Structures are given as structure tokens and as C-alpha cells.
């Protein structure tokens, strides 16, 4: 499948759009003030050990403590044991408060959760991944040809030693001796620098920081045939030319500087596609729709038929809608970068063959995703459960903030509800305090309702308490805001 990368660079933000067959498939956003931490290596300090959770909190100078589970600690190195078995040792035998430890971020902070850490350090280059705690060469499982696996292993094994080993990445399939040697030497220089900073007790900054987004995508888009990479920043373009010539020479010919007056993300309608990816409802071409709800615990996707009517019967309509939905679901998960637990509520199908074909269609659509996923069959309730690996924030969490009006509920109280709350508040205040009259400050929609639709209720309340009630519009108030002031 052919692809094209559009790279939009400003001093404060870098955005990358992956286009496949003329359609936006992925969006990556990195803001300079909030650069992703995954891959960064820190010399952290254990600030708290939690035996009940088999975990520790680690200070890596981010303001929020990071999380290190016992299962993510290389116990063989810490306990000097050749084989600790399958059972995870007690966290108290692995680390203690005040201890300095080299850790790597595997998950960015999300919401109230701190970064997730590991002590199994890895540093990636184009073809190889350095493993400081190993002494052998491993080959990616995606390289299936036995002869190629043996060839790569024979090339890389001599570069392994007591201090580190290597994993051969999928992109190395067909790579020559010089390319692999260059990667191995580069990674060894990087690791030497990490050890130097560790010896200096560098704790304020990372002792290793992963590449910025524009460079990282060139390294990580493995298996995608890129026809063109367009960059709208002259400086970044020149830096990428230098980077690709050294590390990714096969991409050097497709790099292009884009000087056009039209914004680069207006090509392929990228800006509008990003806006649509923030909507809860996604319309299908047939008239059906997806409803996508993202929560901290999971993402749920509901499929509706809408106006789609089949030519034969209802079962055909349902089946065709579900099939179309599988393609849209796979694209939206990729585009929005939704991860974790995902529950898909397809329209109920009584035909088992239809269920099997819908599941196969979803699996085939997800197979184009570079992110690891797992898919289960239909549950007894007709739901499909799946997971998608999550290592960075979703598009919604990067671009959006919690609504200041509804505070994340996704809805606001009706005008009628707020009116009745105001009437009850007046009664409560009147019983508690001695006042001559009341002034209600509220939004324009609520004040209009109080003076029109609810005027008879307001008048009855004035008679009931024997006091005047004045309504005043406060244009800065949202629909749920109001104040009852005693005079």
C-alpha cells in the first residue's frame, strides 16, 4: 500500500499526517512544551514503595511521580540471579526508598496517571534495537524466512558483547552488512553517552531523549511504501535530508520541501478530517453511523443503521451496515489513536455466518494498523471485545480539554431543570435568612424562561413567600450558572 507523509512544522508544534490511497489514516501531534516521553531514559529516585501493589513511585523530575511495577524490573540484574523463575519477586527485595535507578518511559502520563516505567532499557535505531541487559542477537518475529533470519543473526552477533545485545527490527530484512554495522556503532555510541550521564548523576534532565516527531516517524513507519514526504519548513527539511542520508538513505529521494502558499494540511482535506475525528458521531456512506465514546476505562463504539434500507430484507441491511462499519472502526481507531479496551456493539445478527464474516472483515481492516491489537469473538451479549496497544495520548486528549460547563459529562442541564433549581434555592434561602426581596442572576436562556414559560411558577412563589423576586440576565453565565442574592 502506497503512502504519503505531510509534515507541518511551527516553532511550537509539529504535526504529521499519513495519507494512504488519498485518505487520512494517522495524525501525530507533538507540542514542544509537551513532548512525548516514551523512550526517554532517566536516572530516577525511588520515593515510595507500595508492597500491596507490588509497585514503586519514582521521581524523574516531571512534577508527577512515575509508576514502576515489580514485573517491569529486571530482577535478574538487581538480585544477581541467573534465573528468578516465573514468579515476580517481592518489590521490597528489588528496590528501596531513596535508591537511584535507571528507568525508561514505556507509557506517557495520561490524565491523573503518571508515566509507566521499566528497567528493561532499549534504544532503537533504523534496523537494530540495543538491549543493555542482554548479550545476544534476537530477530523480529515478522522476518519469517529462515535463511534471512540466519543471515541477519550471523551479521549482528559479532557486535554483541557482555555489556549489550541487539534485536534486529523488521525493517532490517534485506539490509546489507554496512547498514547494520552503522546502526550497531551508532547505538553503542549512544549507550556510552547514557552511561556517562548516569555516572554524573544527571537527574534534572533525561540521560537519553528519543528523537523528535519529524525524525521519529521516518524511523518508525516500517513496511509502508512512502511515495513522497513533504515538509513545509525549510530548516526541518534540511535536517531531515541530513538524517535520512545517514540513517534512512532509501527515503532520501522522496523528501520534498513544500513552499506552497496553500497550507500543507489543506491538501487531502487533512484539517477538516482532524475536526471530524473529534466528533462523537461518524456518518457512514450508506446512511448508518458510529457513535464513539471515549472514557478513562475504555472506548465504546455503537453502530446504528440510520436511513440505510437493504434491497431484500432487514438481515441484509444489518449485515451490510456492520461490514461497512468495520472499515470505519479500524480507520477511526488509527486516526484517533484510541487504545486500551475497546467494546464494539454491532447491530444484532442472528446469522452465525454473518457474525463470522463481520469479525473477519474487522480483523482484516485492523491488520493494516501498525499498532499491536487483539480481537475476540462475539460475546453472549453480542459485543466484540478488543484491545489496541496504547503508548501515547489519544488525539482527543492532545487537542481537547474537559468542558468547563459540563465538566466532562457530555451534556448540560436543561433550562427547565435550572429554573426549578432556582425556585428551590429561593425557598431554601428564604427559610434560612431574613430578606426583603431576592435578585436572581442567571444566563439569558434561563432568565427568558423564568419570565415567560415559568412566569406563573415564579409568581406563585412570590405570593407564597410574600416577597418580590427580580430576574436579571448575566451574559457571562453559562446555562447551569445562577446566583440568588438577598436584598
TrEMBL record:
Gene3D superfamilies registered for this protein in UniProt: Nucleic acid-binding proteins, Ribonuclease E, catalytic domain
Similarity comment text for this entry: Belongs to the RNase E/G family. RNase G subfamily.
Principal cellular location given in the protein's record: cytoplasm
GO cellular component: cytoplasm
Keyword Oxidoreductase: no
Xref: Pfam families: RNase_E_G, RNase_E_G_Thio
InterPro entries: NA-bd_OB-fold, RNA-bd_AU-1/RNase_E/G, RNase_E/G, RNase_E_G_thioredoxin-like, S1_domain
Subcellular locations according to the entry: Cytoplasm
PROSITE patterns noted in UniProt: S1
GO BP terms, alphabetized: rRNA processing; tRNA processing
Keywords from the UniProt entry: Cytoplasm, Endonuclease, Hydrolase, Magnesium, Metal-binding, Nuclease, RNA-binding, rRNA processing, rRNA-binding, tRNA processing, tRNA-binding
S1 motif domain span: 39-120
Record protein name field: Ribonuclease G
Amino acid at each position: 500500500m502506497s503512502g504519503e507523509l505531510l509534515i507541518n512544522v511551527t516553532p511550537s508544534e509539529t504535526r504529521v499526517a499519513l495519507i494512504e490511497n488519498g485518505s487520512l489514516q494517522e495524525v501525530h501531534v507533538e507540542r514542544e512544551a509537551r513532548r512525548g516521553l516514551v523512550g526517554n531514559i532517566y536516572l530516577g529516585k525511588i520515593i515510595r514503595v507500595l508492597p500491596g501493589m507490588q509497585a514503586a513511585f519514582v521521581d524523574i523530575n516531571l512534577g508527577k511521580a512515575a509508576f514502576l511495577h515489580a514485573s517491569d524490573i529486571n530482577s535478574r540484574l538487581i538480585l544477581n540471579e541467573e534465573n528468578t523463575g516465573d514468579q515476580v519477586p517481592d518489590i521490597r527485595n528489588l528496590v528501596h526508598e531513596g535508591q537511584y535507578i535507571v528507568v525508561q518511559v514505556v507509557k506517557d502520563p495520561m490524565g491523573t496517571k503518571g508515566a509507566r516505567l521499566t528497567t528493561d532499557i532499549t534504544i532503537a535505531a533504523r534496523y537494530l534495537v540495543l538491549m543493555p541487559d542482554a548479550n545476544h542477537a534476537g530477530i523480529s518475529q515478522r522476518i519469517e524466512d529462515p535463511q534471512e533470519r540466519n543471515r541477519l543473526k550471523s551479521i549482528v552477533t559479532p557486535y554483541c558483547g557482555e555489556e549489550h545485545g541487539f534485536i534486529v527490527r523488521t525493517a532490517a530484512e534485506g539490509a546489507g552488512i554496512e547498514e547494520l554495522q552503522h546502526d550497531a556503532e551508532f547505538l553503542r555510541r549512544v549507550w556510552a553517552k547514557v552511561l556517562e550521564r548516569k555516572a554524573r548523576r544527571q537527574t534534572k534532565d533525561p540521560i537519553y531523549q528519543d528523537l523528535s516527531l519529524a525524525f521519529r516517524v521516518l524511523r518508525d513507519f516500517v513496511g509502508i511504501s512512502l511515495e513522497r514526504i513533504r515538509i513545509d519548513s525549510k530548516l526541518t527539511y534540511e535536517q531531515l535530508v541530513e538524517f535520512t542520508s545517514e540513517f534512512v538513505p532509501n527515503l532520501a529521494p522522496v523528501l520534498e520541501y513544500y513552499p506552497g502558499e496553500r497550507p500543507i494540511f489543506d491538501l487531502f482535506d487533512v484539517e477538516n478530517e482532524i475536526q471530524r475525528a473529534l466528533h462523537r458521531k461518524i456518518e457512514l456512506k450508506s446512511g448508518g453511523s458510529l457513535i464513539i465514546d471515549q472514557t478513562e476505562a475504555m472506548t465504546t463504539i455503537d453502530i446504528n443503521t440510520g436511513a440505510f434500507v437493504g434491497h431484500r430484507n432487514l438481515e441484509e441491511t444489518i449485515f451490510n451496515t456492520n461490514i461497512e462499519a468495520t472499515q470505519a472502526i479500524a480507520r477511526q481507531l488509527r486516526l484517533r489513536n484510541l487504545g486500551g479496551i475497546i467494546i464494539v456493539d454491532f447491530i444484532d445478527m442472528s446469522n452465525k455466518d454473518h457474525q463470522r464474516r463481520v469479525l473477519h472483515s474487522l480483523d482484516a481492516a485492523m491488520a493494516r494498523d501498525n499498532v499491536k491489537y487483539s480481537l475476540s469473538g462475539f460475546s453472549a451479549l453480542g459485543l466484540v471485545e478488543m484491545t489496541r496497544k496504547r503508548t501515547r495520548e489519544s488525539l482527543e486528549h492532545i487537542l481537547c480539554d474537559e468542558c468547563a460547563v459540563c465538566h466532562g459529562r457530555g451534556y448540560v442541564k436543561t433550562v427547565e431543570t435550572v429554573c426549578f433549581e432556582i425556585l428551590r434555592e429561593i425557598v431554601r434561602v428564604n427559610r434560612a435568612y431574613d430578606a426583603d426581596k431576592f435578585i436572581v442572576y442567571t444566563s439569558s436562556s434561563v432568565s427568558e424562561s423564568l419570565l415567560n414559560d415559568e412566569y406563573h411558577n415564579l409568581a406563585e412563589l412570590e405570593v407564597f413567600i410574600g416577597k418580590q423576586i427580580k430576574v436579571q440576565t448575566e451574559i457571562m453565565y453559562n446555562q447551569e450558572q445562577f446566583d440568588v442574592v438577598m436584598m
